[in-house]
Design goal:
With 116 residues, this protein is mainly α. It is 75% helix and 0% strand. α1 packs across α2 and α4 runs antiparallel to α5. The protein is globular, with a radius of gyration of 14 Å.
Length: 116
């Protein structure tokens, strides 16, 4: 995932292309990590899935990277893009993470009445 931090955008002419390639880079890097080091990938995934603080930071870092790359300022839109992509690319992951994405997004935007 190193190429997402930062994601180089100088060769792009549209936000749509940037978001597409950023998401492709995310997917490809996770796939390559799984192929190269399946046991480490599994351990990392279990660790993140069981640790909401780490998971929240991970998603926050991804949103920040996508925001910087795309220039999209609306963080709700960025969280929605990640949520939609996770449902399409890995439904099992999305099933576990969607409530956390929504909860983090609502807390950060101030739209969540239940802050605890």
């Amino acid at each position: 995932m190193a190429k997402l931090f930062p994601f180089e955008t100088e060769d792009y002419s549209s936000t749509k292309e940037i978001v597409h390639d950023w998401l492709w880079g995310l997917s490809e890097s996770k796939y390559q990590a799984c192929v190269r080091e399946p046991e480490m990938f599994k351990l990392y995934t279990i660790y993140i899935d069981r640790n909401p603080v780490v998971w929240t930071r991970h998603i926050g870092d991804l949103v920040k990277s996508l925001k910087e790359a795309s220039g999209i300022e609306d963080e709700e839109q960025l969280y929605a893009i990640l949520l939609a992509f996770s449902w399409l690319s890995s439904p099992a992951y999305a099933e576990n993470g969607s409530s956390l994405i929504l909860n983090v997004n609502l807390k950060e935007s101030g739209n969540c009445s239940n802050q605890g």
